[in-house]
Structures are given as structure tokens and as C-alpha cells.
Automatic annotation (TrEMBL):
Name of protein: Class I SAM-dependent methyltransferase
Source species of the chain: Nesterenkonia halobia
Thylakoid recorded as keyword: no
Domain S-adenosylmethionine-dependent methyltransferase Rv2258c-like winged HTH: 33-106
Stored InterPro entries: Methyltranfer_dom, SAM-binding_MTase, SAM-dependent_MTases_sf, WH-like_DNA-bd_sf, WH_DNA-bd_sf, WHD_Rv2258c
Keyword terms, alphabetized: Methyltransferase, Transferase
All residue ranges annotated as the Methyltransferase domain in the record: 180-289
GO terms (BP aspect): methylation
């Protein structure tokens, strides 16, 4: 009790015993290292090969099947075995990926956690720059994350694209029908364009346009989806739509995990509203948090979200002199931003199978 103020302070974590604290911190250290091993297993194909093996392989057999060096594979298997992620038979020297783990660590299942683990190595690569930001301010620019677009695409494929047709489009009454008939669509912060490409293939009569700050992302979009004449990508700042795009140019504008990264989110969302035709609609996905530390204590992905926010989302905005919303800015702040931007009607949607994302449908 603060006797002077008459206020009882409620702490979010009870003081642990020394033994419990040590156990928790060692667990964090071990799990962080296993995360790096999962990312390696994903990128090298080891997890996929191990999951598909008809007979549990030895280290040498696994290396041969994956086309990799046995000595590295053997050490990787050591980390996975002692981490209880891979089963090991010491008598035969063979290794097996349990079915429950295979379902969560390869693209064969509904969610590939190993693909998400790639964030760990990508974010660790900017640690030196980020330490400088902690000390002196400023931010780390997009150019310091050479693989971020690639990893983000893998993330989006599982959390956004997988739900787009069956779960997300129905949030907007009549939208599928309008896309079928043919409308103009803009995706702001489109990245490599995977979501746009899915829509373009499903709705060939509509016209799809992507805008992103990253030249690498737009180059990939153009090369990967050159077979889609209805899809184009442009490099530009989302706060100022490039010509010939302007007021009332689009029937649908989308943003997927993009607004909180912007230098001036309010300008971007106001620009989106101006770009919509009178009967247009803005469909936005962003991170599903409460916007408060206390409110996010029980979020199943809380540490993951706040870490990515600290090491990417927050700092790339600050690098451009931005507001630095961060990924954990929360649903109330998002709804307030949409209202401030002039949207007359906003509805928020959550999908029961997706704790990471919130969806917003906004009408001019």
C-alpha cells in the first residue's frame, strides 16, 4: 500500500524464489537456442525430409537425403534430440520426428512454427544497430533486414492468405460478388504480393495493384507473378499514393500487417479513405492485442509480438522519423485511428483459430 496516495499496487508477477527464477531463465535460454535450430531445420529442409522418411534415418542417411553435410546434420540432431523435439534410438542411431511435431514443424500441417522461428535469426542480425538506438534514439531502417520480406511472406501465408477466401472476405457483405464482377483493388504495404496473387487468381475480372516501400519486395512480386496481367506492383511511400492513383480510384483497399510500421499511420489511413470510391471499403488486418502490458499478460503470443515490435516494427518507423506505434498498439488504438481518419463505420472481427490478428472493416 502506498500510504501517502492511499493506492494499493498490484504487481503483474509475484516475486519468484531464486530456484524458480533460475529454472525459468535457463528454460528461456534453451528454448531460444531451439528456436534457432528450428529455423535451420526449416531452411535446410531437414524437418521436411525427416517428417517424410518412411524409415527413421541415421544422421548420415538424413544428410544424404537432404543433400547436406553429415557433420552439421549430426550436431543439429543433437540439439533436437536433447531438446525433446526429435526422438532418438541410441541402439540403432536412428532419429524420428514425432507425428505431432511434424504437423507443427512442416508445411504439411495447418501451421508451421519452424517458419515463424526464422524471425529469431533475422531480428538478431540487427542487434548491434538496435543497441545504438536504445542509447541514442533513432531507428533501424528496412534495408538492415535483408530476409525480412521473405520471412514475412511465410508468416502471411499461414495467418492471412490461408484465411483470406473462406474466413476474411465474408466479413464484408457482398464483397466476393463484387470481386467476381470486377473491381479495382489496392493493397498498401503489399510485400511480395502473395495475398494479392491469391485474389487475382480467384477473381480474374478484377484489377489488383500493390504498393510497398521495398524495391526487393516489388521486384519479387513482378517476377513471381508475371503470369497475372491483372496484378501490378509499384514502389512508393504509402503516405503519398503515386500517380495515376488518386482520390476515389479504388473499390477495395487492403492492408495486411502494415499500418503499425508506417512513419505516419494517420496520413496513410486518411489517404486510403480518400482513395476509396463512395461505395468502397477498407479491409485491414493488424496485430490483435489489448494495447496494454497488463492486458496482454495472457496473450499466447505476447512475448513474440512485443519482441518483433521492439526489433522491427517500432524501430523501422522511428528510422523514418515516424510515430513508432509498434506491433502491439492494440485494437482500441486501431479503432480510434480509423475513426480519426474519417471512416463513418468500423467493425472489428476476430477469427477463433487465430490469436495473432484482428480484422477491421471500414466504410467511408
Amino acid at each position: 500500500m502506498d500510504r501517502a496516495a492511499g493506492v494499493r499496487h498490484v504487481w503483474t508477477v509475484d516475486d519468484p524464489t531464486a530456484e524458480a527464477a533460475e529454472e525459468r531463465l535457463v528454460e528461456i535460454l534453451n528454448d531460444g537456442c531451439l528456436g534457432l535450430m528450428l529455423a535451420l531445420g526449416h531452411r535446410t529442409g531437414l524437418l521436411a525430409v525427416l517428417a517424410q522418411a518412411s524409415t527413421p534415418p541415421t544422421a548420415a542417411e538424413l544428410a544424404a537425403s537432404a543433400g547436406l553435410q553429415e557433420r552439421y546434420v549430426r550436431e543439429w540432431l543433437g540439439a533436437m534430440a536433447v531438446g525433446r523435439l526429435v526422438a532418438h534410438d541410441p541402439q540403432t542411431g536412428r532419429y524420428r520426428l514425432p507425428a505431432a511435431h511434424a504437423d507443427l514443424l512442416t508445411d504439411e500441417g495447418d501451421a508451421n512454427v519452424a517458419a515463424f522461428a526464422q524471425y529469431l535469426a533475422v531480428l538478431a542480425g540487427v542487434e548491434d544497430e538496435l543497441v545504438g538506438c536504445f542509447r541514442h534514439g533513432g531507428g533501424v531502417p528496412y534495408s538492415s533486414y535483408p530476409r525480412f520480406q521473405e520471412v514475412m511472406e511465410a508468416d502471411s501465408a499461414q495467418t492471412v492468405v490461408a484465411a483470406l477466401l473462406d474466413d476474411v472476405l465474408p466479413m464484408v457483405p457482398g464483397l466476393a460478388g463484387r470481386l467476381t464482377a470486377g473491381i479495382d483493388v489496392l493493397d498498401v504495404g503489399c510485400g511480395r504480393g502473395r495475398a494479392l496473387a491469391v485474389l487475382a487468381r480467384q477473381f480474374p475480372r478484377s484489377r489488383f495493384h500493390g504498393l510497398d516501400l521495398s524495391q526487393e519486395a516489388i521486384d519479387h512480386l513482378r517476377a513471381e507473378h508475371a503470369d497475372l496481367p491483372s496484378l501490378e506492383g509499384r514502389v512508393g511511400d504509402a503516405a503519398v499514393l503515386p500517380a495515376p492513383w488518386g482520390a476515389q480510384s479504388f473499390d477495395l483497399v487492403t492492408t495486411f500487417d502494415a499500418i503499425h510500421d508506417q512513419a505516419d499511420p494517420l496520413a496513410v489511413v486518411r489517404g486510403i479513405r480518400e482513395a476509396l470510391r463512395p461505395d468502397g471499403v477498407y479491409l485491414a488486418q493488424d496485430i490483435n492485442t489489448s494495447g496494454t502490458h497488463a492486458g496482454d499478460l495472457d496473450h499466447p503470443l505476447g512475448p513474440f509480438i512485443y519482441t518483433i515490435s521492439t526489433m522491427h516494427c517500432l524501430t523501422v518507423s522511428l528510422a523514418r522519423g515516424g510515430t513508432g506505434l509498434g506491433a502491439a498498439w492494440g485494437r482500441p488504438a486501431a479503432e480510434a485511428l480509423l475513426a480519426e481518419s474519417g471512416f463513418s463505420s468500423v467493425s472489428t472481427h476476430l477469427l477463433p483459430h487465430d490469436a495473432q490478428n484482428a480484422w477491421y472493416v471500414a466504410w467511408p
